[in-house]
Design brief:
The complex is a heterodimer. By secondary structure, chain A is an alpha/beta fold. Chain A is 38% helix and 13% strand. Chain A contains 16 helices and eleven strands. In chain A, helix 10 (307-322) packs across helix 13 (373-393). The longest helix of chain A has 21 residues, at 373-393. Chain B is mainly alpha-helical. Chain B is built from three helices and two strands; from the N terminus they run H-H-H-E-E. A two-stranded antiparallel ribbon of chain B has the order 1-2. The radius of gyration of chain B is 23 Å and the shape is flat. The N and C termini of chain B lie far apart (46 Å). Classes of the chains: A alpha/beta, B mainly alpha. At the A-B interface, helix 10, helix 11, helix 12, helix 13 and helix 14 of A face helix 1, helix 2 and helix 3 of B.
């Protein structure tokens, strides 16, 4: 085979269109790649090979009948919190073992309509709560660049599968950085769309006012193509926005000029404790954008430093309500109890992992009588200040450029005993979830030990086109995204 | 927060959250969550008395849909997911004692 698994959506779409390969060829190559490397990487939880090949065959038949869409016949890995009819959806939690999704999430319906091949389900932190995919109850995932290191999280399987060429692209979800941070850790591209761009129907909710589904891919162009497929108003998600979806993919041209583009550099994002290698790579990337014609302006996001405190109040509060549905009654695990209350307590004790329990308890506390104003309401007010900072910053610039994380991927086990330390890793990604704007991560270098470094490009509400343009220009004039891990 | 924060009783809150904790877990979480609550106290530096809260970053209001009969999820698929079911209904422990 021609190493089809190593190619991008755009490249494969051209090949399929020219009749140089079939979707069945691509899926077979990708399955072969999974067979040879996933024993080490551990990105996948479940793969239905027959189903994937049947979908590929159907895509080839549709093409023969004249259908031609950018995602037609392209295999995509699915984060295990998106419902796909007839498949498991465990959220990497024991409490959902045995559950079979009775319906398709809207993004899945859209992928099916586009003719994409749903390849399999990839690992994650339990219920998307974590930054290293170490809180996964049903699988262990390694960083393809160094198997002793974490892939990031919570969409660790999504990022690792793409980095290891075990999927052409994947879907992740981002509540506080869960697409961007693993993308940075694994050296791939990930986009968190503006809140409301992509329907959340069928996404197992963690924090409903923050969650967004988005693409993880090998290039910015691929993210644009996949994002376009996912966006749009959905009557099943009342927070989805009725707005035209730009042709994100087609709008990215070979023009790499950033002339007339103002990029904001927030001093607050170069935080204390940041790895100097990260700071240097990101500053070099900013200089590179300048060389492409962009004007660099200093902007300030003074309240971004409160984002972790605000995030861990709001996200846990929403989670404590959302996860109340996992009670052993309608689906998943059930432990016997003499009364319903005892059944709930025992089932949730056995079914949830420690991080999930911690967050539910914290969220229950901040919402409880007497503490609501002091914690939850206050956090919502500071959330307003964080959003206002972005509004002011985007009066001075078209996009903001910054690091994604203070450090590159670290060794497994390094932070598992210290939840607060793990939380602080999200300092540069949570502000965009709280503000609701869009942001992407793309590769901009490597540390001395060979771990990837990510560049974050943040756009104002619904300005995905702008951040994709900046990312695409940077990517086309650099070589970082062409590096692959040796597995 | 200092005015109301007397420390969280993890054991009590776990009961509210319907999660049975072991003694070890209670002790572990108490320490860890005290640390997190101490960290979030930094929000007290800010005077937000005149700031409106944000519940949703991109607010949309009064989302209505037409009142049409749609297709419901398949009953058999839903029941098949239940840990215990009889005659097309989900079984639960007795709620009211005789």
């Amino acid at each position: 085979m021609a190493d089809l698994h190593k190619l991008t959506i755009a490249e494969l779409s051209d090949k399929l269109g020219a009749g140089e390969c079939t979707s069945v060829d691509i899926v077979n190559d990708v399955l072969g790649s999974i067979d040879s490397t996933d024993g080490n990487v551990g990105a996948y939880l479940t793969i239905d090979r027959e189903d994937a090949l049947a979908q590929a065959k159907a895509a080839d038949e549709a093409r023969a009948a004249g259908k031609n869409l950018p995602m037609l016949g392209i295999p995509v890995a699915i984060k295990d919190l998106l419902n796909v009819k007839g498949q498991p959806c465990t959220c990497s939690s024991k409490i959902l073992e045995g559950y079979t999704a009775p319906y398709d999430a809207t993004v899945i319906t859209k992928l099916r309509e586009a003719g994409a091949v749903l390849l399999g389900r990839v690992n994650m932190d339990e219920f998307a709560m974590g930054s290293s995919t170490e809180n996964a109850a049903l699988g262990k995932t390694s960083n393809p660049w160094n198997l002793d290191h974490v892939p990031g999280g919570s969409s660790g399987g999504s990022a690792a599968s793409v980095a290891a060429d075990e999927a052409i692209a994947s879907l992740g979800s981002d509540t506080g950085g869960s697409i961007r941070q693993p993308s940075a850790f694994c050296g791939v591209v990930g986009v968190k769309p503006t809140y409301g761009r992509v329907s959340r129907y069928g996404l197992t909710a963690f924090a409903s006012s923050l969650d967004q589904i988005g693409p993880i891919t090998k290039t910015v162009k691929d993210s644009a193509i996949l994002l376009e497929t996912l966006c749009g108003l959905d009557k099943k998600d009342s927070s989805s926005i009725d707005m035209d979806v730009p042709a994100f993919g087609k709008k990215l041209t070979n023009d790499t000029s950033l002339a007339g583009m103002k990029l904001g550099l927030p001093k607050e994002y170069f935080v204390e404790g940041m790895d100097p290698e990260i700071e240097k790579s990101v500053r070099d990337a900013v200089e590179h954008c300048k060389s492409l014609g962009a004007e660099i302006v200093d902007v300030s996001l003074p309240n971004a430093k409160y984002a972790i405190a605000v995030y861990y109040i709001i996200a846990t509060a929403e989670a404590s309500a959302n996860l109340a549905r996992f009670d052993g009654i309608r689906y998943g695990m059930r432990l016997a109890g003499k009364s319903p209350a005892e059944l709930y307590r025992k089932t949730r004790a056995a079914g949830f992992g420690q991080e999930v329990k911690r967050r539910i308890i914290l969220g229950t506390y901040v919402l409880s009588s007497g503490y609501y104003d002091a914690y939850y309401l206050k956090a919502q007010k500071v959330r307003t200040l964080i959003r206002n900072d972005f509004t002011d910053a985007f009066k001075q610039c078209d996009a903001i450029v910054a690091p994604v994380t203070p450090t590159a991927a670290y060794k497994k086990g390094e932070k598992t005993d210290d939840p607060l330390k793990m939380y602080l890793d999200d300092i540069l990604t949570t502000p965009s979830n709280l503000a609701g704007n869009c942001a992407l991560s793309l590769p901009c270098g490597f540390t001395a030990t060979g771990m990837p470094i990510g560049l974050q490009i943040i756009g104002d509400d619904f300005q995905e086109e702008t951040i994709l343009k900046v990312g695409h220009a940077y990517e086309q004039t650099t070589e970082w995204h062409k590096e692959r891990p040796s597995l | 927060m200092s005015e109301t924060h007397e420390g969280m009783d993890v054991g009590y809150v776990a009961k509210l959250a319907c999660i049975e904790l072991t003694d070890e877990e209670t002790k572990l979480f108490q320490g860890q969550l005290d640390q997190v609550l101490h960290y979030v106290e930094q929000l007290n530096e800010l005077d937000v008395s005149t700031v409106e809260p944000t519940a949703h970053a991109i607010p949309v209001f009064n989302v209505l849909r037409t009142d049409e009969i749609g297709t419901s999820l398949n009953h058999a698929d839903i029941i098949a997911n239940a840990p215990s079911a009889t005659d097309g209904e989900i079984r639960v422990p007795k709620i009211i004692d005789q």
